[in-house]
What we know:
Elements: H1 5-14, H2 19-30, H3 36-43, H4 47-59, E1 63-66, E2 72-75, H5 78-115, E3 124-127, H6 130-143, E4 147-152, H7 163-171, E5 175-181, H8 186-200, E6 205-209, E7 215-219, E8 223-230, E9 237-244, H9 246-262, E10 267-268
Parallel strand pairs: 4-5, 5-6
Antiparallel strand pairs: 1-2, 3-9, 4-7, 6-10, 7-8, 8-9
Amino acid sequence: xxxxxVSMRQALKELGLSTYEANCYLVLLTSxxxxxxxxxxxxxxxxxxxxEAMEKLHLLGLCSxxxxxIRRFEATPPAEAFAQLSEKLKKEATERIGKAQRxxxxxxxxxxxxxxxxDLMTQVEICKNRAQVRRTYYRLLDSAxxxxxxxxxxPYVVHPHDLKQKKEALERGVDMRVIYETxxxxxxxxxxxxxxxxxxxxxxxxxxxxxxxxxxxxxxGACVLLALEHGTTGAPSFTSLAIRHxxxxxxxxxxxxxxxxxxxxKQRK
Length: 269
């Protein structure tokens, strides 16, 4: 591998770093404990994006923060940093393979159940806009009698303070469990955790997870509302479907249980 900046930047991006993060890291390798302002000037990364990029590098173990009146950054010795990163990537790959195998089992069950379930399209409602998604979401909350499980991830369509319908469902004895996708922005993550605490006070059980596969709501093991992301460029775009189908609900509930078990250490009470 060439060690010129262009080749190194591309290699870092292939490891999962953004262009901004790669540029900042290259500055760290050739600078002596620079400040955020210095990193911004040398890397060309906008000042307002520096701390977000440096936080990611710190989380990956590629740099450390030096305490003092002025915050300075220092590259972790590369041999140590990339040994740790290699182990992290191996662990993530193993987890992804396991999830793919479990998804294969659940998809097979769904495929087989759909074969004998008649015309599935007669049980599908396509939600064409945000207002329709919100109406369907609240209607399903109001209809719940025993259990609700959900994946919540941005961008959010439903108002974040949707406690009225949730509280009413919980008062009816509905068991409600929600997995929230963690947010890369530390400020937004703190706001999310504050919101989760408010929901836990009305009885919602919640846990935090990394990247979730979809937005999902399963009600009483029979009704599903899911939003599937599509498109690879630009802002995320979703198609939302409300489906009444027990086979699909059962398969997606099993998927939820896998994630619920795996993020058990991140429970919020």
